[in-house]
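Justification of computing resources. Each target in the renewal requires a structure prediction run like the one illustrated here; the chain below, 127 residues long, is used simply to show the kind of job we budget for.
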Amino acid sequence: MKRVSLILAGWLLPGGGYLLTRRYTQFGISLALVTAASISGIALGGSNLFPTSADLTGIDTLTWLMTKAGSITKLLAGGPYLLARLCGYAQSIFQGHLHEYGTTLLVLAGLINLLALADSVEQPAGN
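Resulting structure tokens:
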């Protein structure tokens, strides 16, 4: 049960797993990095919607797989992703100015949060 609560807290609040294990420095760094990457990605018009089949027509298989994986990875940012969607931010894969940079930052936010989540579950406080 403890792992489930760490995972849920770490997903909803970036670095939340660190907060529950009383690793405050790691919590602050994770929260700042994921939030900054998410805000920067949104400011640059990054995509946070799953690509439609029309968006993916005519591209090679590797690009198709990377696009799908990137879309799933953005969900891993957790709280910032949910907050952006609740506030009405919905950008498709090819909309917006500088969308590739923004999309990359949104994917980065998800990956940083995933690393923080895994670390908080694997290394409890005091180790």
